[in-house]
Amino acid sequence: MTSRVSLHRLGRHSTPDSIEVSCGIFDLNHGGRTYRVMVDCGLAPHKVGDKPWTGPDFSLLADGRKIDAVLITHVHADHVGFMPAIVPYLGPKARIWMTRTSETMIAHILEDSLKIYQREKIAGPYSRTQYELAMQRVQTLGRPGPVEILPGLKVLFHPAGHIPGACSYTFRVGRSHIHYSGDRCEHDQPGVLGATPLPRDWRRNIILAGTDCTYGAEPDSDQRFWMDEMDRCETLIREAMYRGKPTLIFTFGVHRGGAIAHELARRGVADETRVYLDGSCRTLSRSMRNAKSFWSPNETLVDFGQVQEIAKHSDRVEAISWGGPYVVIASPGMGGPGGAAMFWRKRILEDPGALAMFTGFVAPDTDGSRIKKAADGGVKTLELASINFDGTRSKETITVACQVEQVRLGAHQSRTTILDSIRELQPSAVVLNHGSEAALESLRAELSTDLSCDFYPTHVSPDVEIDL
To answer: How many Cα atoms within 13 Å fall on the side-chain side of residue 124?
Structure first.
């Protein structure tokens, strides 16, 4: 009996330079059964038209065919931020699968976003009712391995590195395998070890239906190593300490804030000066200190040592009044607006000798990119929007006088590692996604010279059909 899969990329770019949000549909016909499975459902905070976000293209779902199962690779917003909006398209028995570690964090992430949309009085991508109904559908997986998610459809859940809870999915359909990697990282980080290869019997006759192409157009990513970048981060912080000045680390709350806190404790910085975790960095790092929330042996405990958690506003007031240098780790990673960093941003940026540091990719047209340009010699005075703790929005006029640096504590594959991992699988077809248009084209051009397979790299194709 012939099996067939139709692959649909629903993710979109808000601009050619942006990273495509992660969302894919597999329509599977096998063994007399027909299933529709969605993997990921993310959004990006970019303005398109009158919307402050870019979500997937749901036009395919207008065909009325219901989704039978949803699989979430991990809980970064560009993979899960649109998830509650799929509720109207779910079949009556459809479950939303994710790892136990992801389940411990997802409610905070989605509900926090919902509160922001409500405070801003803008139409969010989902309602509170949809959020609550989606959470009722969550099916938690406690350990790696194969699971029959639907009758006759077995899927391998495999650790992907990247962040705690991240996993890849490999569908077994007859003798073929369809692999969706999500974001993948092979190097070790505090809190999570790097991804290992798929088991041999899950690598035969493989179609690569989705892969992390974030650094696909960045050859210099091959020269960046996590611990080297962390060494530079420590050096910059200590130089600010010796000047008697504070440091603000803009970072992402899911994993990276906790990983940095662990390293500053391990390296003794938190013993020599005050180091604080604020906002979502504090809340979302808690799962990294509790082995009961882990889903995989790849996840490891972190130790914050003398790092202090900011639990209330008076803690912030006390931090700035004690008279010595301090370090604050707070989101958002791209500089705002919104998040705990809004309390610290103006006072750090306007303080000569202080240090503001970005710890990963900073997208064009974000507050972070404008701050970096100002520090590099552009217009020093900026007008930036700020979302305050009471939910109100205001404008801040900021003169950038401090030192501004960027270290790349990345949790993605470098360009060469992306290429090597695809070549090692020897797929019969490749659907490149989750990268900028330049990244997708760069990888396609390189791989087409030595892989004799079909590529679907740079457009949303509603009808990629492959016989298995």
So the answer is: 23
Q: How many CB atoms lie within 10 A of CB 466?
A: 18
Angle at 442 between CA 440 and CA 443, to 5 degrees: 70
CA dist list (Å): 175 to 4, 38, 83, 180, 210: 12, 21, 31, 17, 19
- Interacting residues of 423 by C-beta distance below 8 A, sequence separation 6+: 447, 450, 451
Alpha helices in 220-323 (DSSP H): 226-242, 256-266, 269-272, 280-285, 313-321
Give per-residue burial for 220-246: e unless 16+ CB within 10 Å, then b: ebeeeebeebbebbbebbbebbeeebb
For 222-279, the pLDDT digits (tens) are 999 999 999 999 999 999 999 999 999 999 989 999 999 999 999 999 999 999 999 9
As a whole number of angstroms, the distance between CA 351 and CA 286 comes to 31
> What is d(CA 260, CA 277) in angstroms, rounded to the nearest whole number?
10
Q: Which among 9, 18, 6 is positioned nearest to 431, based on CA atoms?
A: 9
Whether the predicted pLDDT of 388 surpasses 70: no
Report the first-to-last Cα separation within the chain, whole angstroms.
Answer: 10
Query: What is the distance between the alpha carbons of residues 384 and 350, in angstroms, rounded to a whole number?
Result: 13
Q: Cα-Cα-Cα-Cα dihedral of 444, 446, 452, 458, to 10°?
A: 10
Beta pairing class for 355-358 and 308-309:
unpaired
SS (H, E, C) 318-364: HHHHCCCCEEEEECCCCCCCCCCHHHHHHHHHCCCCCEEEECCCCCC
- Look up the pTM and report it: 0.93
The three-state secondary structure class of 9 is: strand
